[in-house]
Design a protein that fits this description.
The chain is α+β, with helices and mostly antiparallel strands. The longest helix has 20 residues. A hairpin with a 5-residue loop joins strand 1 and strand 2. The protein has a domain of 92 residues: FAD/NAD(P)-binding domain. GO terms for molecular function: oxidoreductase activity, acting on CH-OH group of donors. Pfam families: GMC_oxred_C (PF05199).
């Protein structure tokens, strides 16, 4: 779930080759995340054992978030979808507020990532953006909202 203390911002120390600040991710797993791993790991271990596995090693512990290691996450957000340009980067067709002919399709439009495997939602986003692009072309351009 989203928390105000999890956010993206521009790093005040690190810069790219052009001198522009790098994107900084401020995030760590919450107690709820740790409890979920403990519960699901134990439950999966029980199921696998019941299926007849000789050896069961259930993952029931989760450490701190570490961006350099794959931790079964889908890092999302950064180009948030919303209802106004003051609080979001794209409208509900995934059309940029300030660049009308640019549609951003992908998990960057998520305000947060509430779980694993966002494939279904991303597919819905792609269909919504396609609908917006068709509407945009039919209207000869312009903002869709």
């Amino acid at each position: 779930m989203p928390h105000k203390h999890h956010f993206l911002d521009l790093d005040t120390t690190y810069k790219d080759a052009f001198g522009d600040p790098l994107l900084r991710i401020t995030f760590d797993f919450e107690e709820q995340d740790h409890e979920l791993v403990k519960f699901m790991g134990a439950k999966c271990g029980e199921i696998i054992k019941e299926m007849g596995a000789d050896t069961v090693v259930a993952n029931t512990k989760q450490g701190a978030y570490e961006i350099t290691q794959y931790q079964s996450t889908h890092n999302t957000g950064g180009v948030i979808m919303g209802s106004s340009p003051e609080t979001s980067a794209v409208n509900n067709y995934l059309q940029m507020w300030d660049v009308e002919n640019l549609f951003v399709v992908g998990a960057s439009a998520f305000a947060h990532n509430s779980g694993y495997n966002p494939t279904g939602t991303l597919t819905a986003f792609a269909y919504r953006a396609a609908e917006g692009i068709q509407k945009y072309r039919k209207n000869g351009g312009g903002s869709l909202v």
